[in-house]
Write a structure and sequence with these properties.
Number of helices: 10
Structural class: mainly alpha
Order of helices and strands: HHHHHHHHHH
Radius of gyration: 18 Å
Distance between the termini: 17 Å
Helix content: 55-70%
CATH superfamily of the largest domain: Hypothetical protein, domain 2
Shape: elongated
CATH topology of the largest domain: Endonuclease III, domain 1
Number of strands: 0
Largest sheet: none
């Protein structure tokens, strides 16, 4: 895919979603961090249901650490992998209290030092909380990047590096959200809605559904 196509793809996505935002509900950087940790292999809807009960009771490192693992599990038990997530969140809260003055750090190395925070989670926090032009490659972005030809790669890291290199600067800050939302609602895994896709003529996917082949 050439630069002109990439630019037009992001231009159209920006026209549709001028101010894209995460679908996770949060009111602080700490809440965002916890929600993103919980969202691994889980839906944003499921996370929001759990945190709607958790955050009114505990939404600071001190408060969640004070709950302890057993009580925290009760709040997040509807979310996949809740046992390991609860343990990681308690450990993360302890580290935030001890090492970061209970504040979410704004650099990658510090974020990735927290239990349960990998590269993807760090990228989401850096982008959404601190406005850094990072691109967190989840299953949606991985699929869209490969399927459309936007930035194909065999691993999430390969796709991320290619997206960071090939995405025009003016789009980098919001590219993460545009591609996730496009993958979630249009370029779906099993049944892509190609007939209603705003970038279908630019997409290089050969198995388009519901459109006439050119």
């Amino acid at each position: 895919m050439n630069k002109g196509k990439r630019t037009e793809i992001f231009t159209r996505l920006r026209t549709l979603m001028p101010k894209p935002e995460t679908e996770l509900n949060y009111s602080s950087n700490f809440e965002l961090l916890i929600s993103v940790i919980l969202s691994a292999q889980a839906t944003d809807i499921g996370v929001n249901k759990a945190t709607a009960l958790l955050y009114p009771v505990a939404n600071t490192p001190q408060d969640i650490f004070g709950l302890g693992i057993k009580q925290l599990k009760n709040y997040i038990k509807t979310i996949g992998l809740y046992n390991s997530k609860a343990e990681n969140i308690i450990k993360t809260c302890r580290l935030l209290i001890d090492n970061f003055n209970s504040e979410v750090p704004r650099n990658r190395d510090a974020l990735e030092s927290l239990p349960g925070v990998g590269r993807k989670t760090a990228n989401v926090v850096l982008n959404t909380a601190f406005g850094q032009p990072t691109i967190a490659v989840d299953t949606h972005i991985f699929r869209v990047s490969n399927r459309t030809g936007l930035a194909p790669g065999k691993t999430p890291l390969e796709v991320e590096k290619r997206l960071m290199r090939l995405t025009p600067e003016e789009f980098k800050l919001d590219a993460h959200h545009w591609l996730i939302l496009h993958g979630r609602y249009t370029c779906k895994a099993r049944k892509p809605v190609c007939g209603k896709c705003s970038i279908v003529d630019l997409c290089e996917f050969r198995g388009k559904v519901g459109v006439e082949s050119s």
